[in-house]
What does this fold into?
Amino acid sequence: TPRLKLFHSRWNLPDWKAGRQPSRRPRILFLADRNILANQAYNAFSAFPEDALVRIEPADIRKKGRVPKNGSLFFTIFQTFMTGTDEDGSPAPSFGEYPEDFFDFIVIDEVQDLTNTQLMLILNALHQPNDFLLCGDANQIVHPNFFSWSKLKSLFFTDATFKNSHQALNILQANYRNSSLVTDVANRILKLKHARFGSVDKESNFLVNCVGNNVGNIQLLDDSDSVKGTLNANTARSTKFAVLVMHSEQKAQASTVFDTPLVFSIEEAKGWSMKILSFSTLFMMKVKFFNKKKK
It folds into this structure.
């Protein structure tokens, strides 16, 4: 995979390229916003020596009283790095325990869910300031933080550490996850969004192309009590169906209609691996259903 090739390329430090005996293994950090992504990355690099892989967990940090430093490939999530306490018990980000030049390369996935301040604090742990890769999608923001690619580019242009370096920006438009019908509907919704609300930057205007052969199927149902009652009767006792709502506060309202305990918000469901959860269908509850005015 592209990620694996990237890690293999960064595995060879300049010492190897120059024919010198390396003084140590390289240290590479993979940082994501959800455990499922960090675990996927960790499992993808099982070909590396076992003592080279480190999965940074909050429980291990609390148990040992320090962050792990013996390893070469480190995997964790934003929340683990952003939380922690100092010797006095006061809040202190865990990533602050790593020296400023500790990592040789950093990969940050779902960067749109980080603020610029958080991003710069993490990148300060790089041995060389330009050895990093940021991946993200401004149309998949979970935590509102006013992210935009233009602001991110401005940050690197104005910061003295990165000002004289060249940072390449590549737009990836291939969709490997969804069927062609789902991709087409998503593109149409994105066009409506841009027409109604505009776009924060040009990088967010690009549509995606489905590269799979599966056409898929989309069915729209009437928002009526009879339809919802039928859906509830057919899915309440099944683990293959879940109810998906826009916001966490709507879960309680959804539970008054659907008897299944499998009710999730968009934030909770983002990044789901359907193979792991074995859910074959998701029901998107319309916002207006949960925002009817009280009579």
Remarks:
- Residues 125 and 179 are 40 Å apart (CA to CA).
